[in-house]
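Quality-control log, excerpt.
Job 1 of 2 completed; input and output follow.
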Amino acid sequence: MADNRLTKKRLKNHFAYNWWKYALSAAVSAMLVSIVFAVTAYRPPAEKKVELYVLNGYIDTETFQRDFWPELQARKPEQEELTVLNINLTDSSNIYAPMQFSTYVAAQQGDLFLISRDEMRRITADGAQEALVELTGYLDNGVIDADGMDLKNGTLDRGDVTTYLSEIERLKRSYAGRIELYAGMEIDYLDECDNPASDYFRQLPLDYRIGSVHLMHADDGGIVDIDTSPERFAEMLSGRFGGDLRRLTTAYFDKLIRMVEAGGFDFVGHVDKISYNAERCEPGITSRGWYRDKARECFERIAARGLLVEINTKKYNACGVFFPNREHFGLLRELRIPVLVNSDAHRPELIDDGRHEAMAALREAGIREVIERVGNRWVPVEIVL
């Protein structure tokens, strides 16, 4: 007859060989309980949750909730949850932060945005080129309280030009002998009446002028900015140009050519700026014969007028591209068009972005010198890496 008595020795042997089974069972049970709790636990609906986005200033979530939550509940007792998200737009190593912020706003996420006055000015002062979010609608409907700040665009109103020029002159005197400062202005070619050659801009006491094209006339008669995000560009192309990318691109280069013929400026800014968004709508478009022919026509007109061309490095660190694209550098050399390297920086910390890489790319293309402003005149300077 078998001995089935439960003894201390048998228990010890049993657990020695089967302990892992109990441990696994406990872990699985805990996991199942966690899943059941996660699935069945109460979650406040969206209308009872408050999302606070903090830009460029770390907030300790626990401390903030402890201090701010009672005040919020006192004002809005129906709210049940507060979420705080920190977004650092100044971290150059995180190129996705601005995209993340823009996506949140576009998706209408977030109830409160905590941002400094200076940072709000910086975001909007970047204008259409780098605007993280189009603010006009929010300003018009009162969602954003500008508190007296002009946030509707990053352009310089004519009424502010005198103040701008006076400030440049003051800074010139203040930094005389230490920094060469020049009063410059990027002037958009809007049409035959409003462009760098207009009497108004010609009479301004500027040290140099940049001619550029950002704005195009849409099929509906409105004016749109091609220097925007790829997503917004694609939407604009579809809704306001009938999806005809070749027609829009051709019109862009034609406008550049009209600007070159009209004159009134020292150098052309970001010649083929449209290429970045065009390539994202239709990969390979800049390699097509008609595109190359149109770009060449534009550069030939620039050469004939004896104008300078800017190598714009603004998007190099983020996107790895120059304007004009490096594939045009050989054409610049062939046509003997003088070039200067410009970061198009909208913030002091970006003043030198991509400069070394642009110089190296120019040398690789056989261009040995760039033009710089020295002693208030344009002079050639050898590229030394």
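Job 2 of 2 completed; input and output follow.
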Amino acid sequence: MSKLRSGKNSMILKEAIREKALELGFEDAGFTGVEPLDLYIQEIESRPTEMYGWVQTEQFNTLRGARPREKHDWARSLVVLIRNYHRRAFPSQMLGVIGRCYQVDERKEHGAEHQRIVNFIKFLKDQGVRVWFDEELPARMSAARAGIIIYGKNCFAYARNSMRGTSWLESIPLILDADLEPDEPSIELGCPKWCKNACIAACPTGALYAPKKMNPLRCIAFNSYYTNGITPLEFREPMGTWIYGCDRCQEVCPRNQPWLNQALPENGSLMQRAEDFALSTLLTMDEKHYVDKVWPLAFYISRKKVAKWQMNAARALGNQGDPENVPLLVQSLNDSPHEIVRGMCAWSLGQLGGAQAKAALEARLSRENDLVRLEIEKALEIK
């Protein structure tokens, strides 16, 4: 055990941890205890079971994670970090298509951001502190109780003391075995009264139904990667061109405008990868392109579910409203081995309309059964 852990008081250790976090490039660091996150537990338990049953399974359970001391009997404190994922500009062709936070998620590739947290954990261990990252631990509520974020009506975390108060951040809670004094919590809503519920009004699918209230089953992000089967009809047009994640409620937020309106340096490595995520590329990609180019950056969709990406791309191409997308959609309607992809191509062709789209749908109708046939029949009724 190091001298810092054993020979100095916890306040010195606490400040050393905070200073190291800032030195490594984290925007802020706060501390809280390991008592149950009662507000989170109460909020989740008060909502209909079907809304949050997907995070209350045997394999993954945030209510279990919200009781860190019960799960880890050695736990004494939490340190929560803020990571800024919007330090550089994003490629324009990926905006409105893939959520910003996913474009720079380097966990699978062990990039610079991943190394930052690795170095921080090493520092803690060098001080004789036991540390653990528990993915079941609710990150935003931990950050609020540690006093480093305040909530928005869109349910996102906004920096309390850094980053010009923006929400382009990730909260990272770590469990420690050191007794450290907790910081003052910030469990409050920080939105200005004059914002007129901009995020709620802008949510295309009605997932945000009241301040700090969201039905994840209606969320574009949730439907872009967590659901199975073909996307329900009621969500297809509102989802627009988003194929993995969604930033709509953050983009319209007045609190985020100062950050969005500033000039940021270009992300060169991401610019080089942008073509890998072009809608036309995603619709027709093979398994190798998916596993090598797409999945390492956007891994919430299984490595075995390339069809999910292709289906999302087909829907986005239809929502672009560009007749030039018709030949590509016709090709996948005829060639894709996946029903959900062919079915979505049929829907998109119906949205785009025109003689070529109609002829392709009519020619394919007799060759399909069940799901795809129904989609073709509906598409032919549109135009």
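Post-run check on job 2. The chain has a mean pLDDT of 94.
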